[in-house]
Amino acid sequence: MKKEEKMKKVLFKMIVFFIISTSGFSFENEINNLFEDEKIEQSDSLVIEQEVKVETIDPILLRDTYSRRATNYIYAQLFKIDKDGQVVPYLLEEYKKNDEMEIYCKLREDIYFSNGDSITAQDVKDSIENYLKNGYMNDLYSSIQQIQVLNDREFIILLNYPDHELEIGLTNPLMSILKRENNKIFTSGRYAIEEIEKNKIKLKKNKYYFDQSSIFENVEIKGELNSYQRLINSLNLPNYYSYDLYKEDIETAKKIGNLRGKKIVKDTVYDIISLVFGNKKNYSLNDRKALESLLNREATTICPQEMFDIKISFLEKNYSRREAIKILKNSGHFEKKIKIMCLNTIHNRNFAQYVAHDLIQNGLNVEIEIYNLDKFLNKLRSKDYDIALYNITINSVYPLTSLEKTIVGELIDYDLEDSLLPFFNLFKEERNKEYKERIIDKIFYLTYSSRYFIPLAHKQTYILKSENIVGMK
């Protein structure tokens, strides 16, 4: 029996190796450690893997999709989005709008922080007003003037102007309710923080949380750049949850393993695979448009059409090949090497190679620079690069937050943010769904029209998880 099982493992590894090596992806060390034998046991622990590690669990510092996702497991907010996509009270027992400038709120009685302290209206005031003062993306909540505490359970949210997006905005982890004490954070959600390591965080069940239905006592959230490694883990580990997979990853999983007991879920996150520009070389607007005109790409619209019910803005091709080459020659870019920085993942390296191929075919000298996560993010945020290939993540539930994150966290352009703030506020004041979508499309177009980014492809992301995982965010 053992011999037969060993033969099955060997055969499985050979099949995986064949599929990976013939799939068109380039790879170097991806599969070196994929097939280490692991002792698989049923347990009360859940493992969650995503493409990028958690950078922070402090809502004040949140500026990336991956950390925001992790905070869903450890914090509660005043409202939440239920399984039907509706905004419903979470920490609140009741609420009502006194008028367009005031919202009355009353907290549940059975809510506690992870240290056992009751969650009070003063804690809500401290959490929200601290974010309004110090939060990385606090402009998103400029409609909130202050929290007026009535008693331990009741308070009023006072507004600067009408905000018809406020309830959904208050479901965002940026608006998490927490307690700070002696440089420690006590959480309000399903799990408490046990340990923070370099590439993962360990969580334990919050014994004071009002809903104890979760079957997992412990949760680990890890960063794993290698999508193939996440696929192998998905097929082998019993309590496992993998984010940030593309359709081609799911198809590979179907080919190499039995998906019985697994569930494939479309996530609300889309990746816009894009080129962004750093400070190492000066590219004029015409230079950027000329480079774009030389590229063959999948995308036809600026952002994913699937996010909208309306027709959205199309990408442009401003110049013919001859015109684009002439512009780039006049700017001196044919005399200098163009360096394209990318993250060391299979998908990103492939896209960087496609871009380099198109530019080299047109006579340009191109070099690809591949970096690990920490170095890539350091260079991206300091704008210490020539051109970067980067995944701009857009959450269809929080499009405004995604745009703000892109502008201040990835493009690092505060002048652009200031110029777009009137559109952000207009979006919050608008009630009509079609008009709201047109405003989001307009913000995308204005950002693209100055070529702050050049979209190459849109990727719907998927979750692959064990079917027994229910009730998790």
Automatic annotation (TrEMBL):
Residues 86-403 form the Solute-binding protein family domain. GO terms for molecular function: peptide transmembrane transporter activity. Keywords: Signal, Transport. The lineage of its organism: Bacteria, Fusobacteriati, Fusobacteriota, Fusobacteriia, Fusobacteriales. One of its GO terms (biological process) is peptide transport. PANTHER family: OLIGOPEPTIDE-BINDING PROTEIN APPA, PERIPLASMIC BINDING COMPONENT OF ABC TRANSPORTER. InterPro entries: Peptide/Ni-bd, SBP_5, SBP_5_dom. It holds the Pfam family SBP_bac_5. This is Solute-binding protein family 5 domain-containing protein. It comes from Fusobacterium mortiferum. One of its GO terms (cellular component) is periplasmic space. Belongs to the bacterial solute-binding protein 5 family. It comes from the Bacteria.
